Amino acid sequence: MTDLKTFLSQQRAIFTVAHPKSQALAGKASAWRSGVPMHWMRDWATPFPIYVQSAKQATLTDVDGHAYDDFCLGDTPSMFGHARLELVAAIAKQAGEGVGFMLPTPLANEVGDLLRERFHMAQWQVATTASDANRAVIRWARALTKRDKILVFDGCYHGMVDDCFVALKDGVASNKTGLIGQVIDQARTTKVIPFNDVQALAKALSEGDVAAVLAEPVMTNCGMIQPIDGFNETLRELCTQYGSILILDETHTLSSGPSGYAGAHNLKPDMFVVGKAIAGGIPAAVWGVTSEIAARMDAAQQEIGAGQSGIGTTLSGNALVIAAIKTMLTEVMTPTAYDYMLKGATYLVEGLRTVIAHHKLPWCVVHVGARAELIFAPEAPQNAEAMRDHLDHDLLEAFHLYLINRGVLIAPFHNMMLISPQTGFDAIDRLVAAVDAFSQELNS
């Protein structure tokens, strides 16, 4: 019987033989820190990076000529497909008319109205990334409430936001392990509690010092964790009761429907953030606020007076981004596209659950909207601590690399899979077949 480490070694050898051009390019990348332009590009299970030649619709092709069914989709920026012709045309047109003016174009008003109509927030701002947007809303929440602390859930990720790099260690809030260059203890101003723990949530908010709760309505960054029945509604009620601002980060859960998870489930955040896919992969994020919050922001700004707010960057809201967002909202992120994506995700989940049942595997599948996750646990964990018990690094690496060797890409972080409106059901069948083959080889 082949053990897991031997199996993993075999898969690495298969990959290396099949990717000589990528290996050669990786060997010449010493100018890049970690050998890549952004070090996350090394977080895949491969011995060296796959170098991409091109991507169209839901297929990615590497420099060695291998085509992959892409269920990663850039970890969400390309959720609606690669090289969308609608987006290509809009970007080319705007590039020919200028990109950055630090002034609005006529399209800006259209985009603001489209965002208001779709996501039901009264006023909006554009940021360059969801990290920037989350930093902005945290700053505003502190200004409006005159409270220092925010609350996040254990296992969260909200971009490169210092305040959020806090986790529970033996039940105590601590800076996350591996946090580079941190000079203060973030737990002084950030509370962290388990997701789905209503009692802990009520206690933390009742102390009256939390400016804002920053949350995904479904946790997606430590393995997918669904809210228990009524949790998001209780979160809303408790934030109202104790005067804390509720911020929903829907950068991933935008896959739930045209208005995100909040729209699909009638949630009522005070502030709303979405990045990555909102401009089709062009670096951009948007954040919106209710009319009540907007009025409080006006009052706070008047109280402070003129001066540099420290919120915003020069490239935010540039003309290219505005053109891209308009195209996404009007031509790409359509109800028809979402209908297809949701049907595809249901088809994928049914296929994965059939494989699990056939092989009697102690695994499960969790999914929200067009996003699914295969979890190496018999039941879906309800918080990050329970999820961590099932994140077997060697098994995850072997699984990811096996899929890659069979021409299938899923997100490199745990087992997230995303369906685009350009993902063929035949591609879904190939993904399910690859999982089935992996299960057979694992059992043997």
TrEMBL record:
Sorted UniProt keywords: Pyridoxal phosphate
Source domain of life: Bacteria
Keyword Membrane: no
Matching Pfam families: Aminotran_3
Record bears the keyword Iron: no
GO molecular function, one term: transaminase activity
InterPro entries noted in UniProt: Aminotrans_3, PyrdxlP-dep_Trfase, PyrdxlP-dep_Trfase_major, PyrdxlP-dep_Trfase_small
Cofactor (UniProt): pyridoxal 5'-phosphate
Family, per entry: Belongs to the class-III pyridoxal-phosphate-dependent aminotransferase family.
Protein name in the entry: Aminotransferase
Upper classification of the organism: Bacteria, Pseudomonadati, Pseudomonadota, Alphaproteobacteria, Caulobacterales
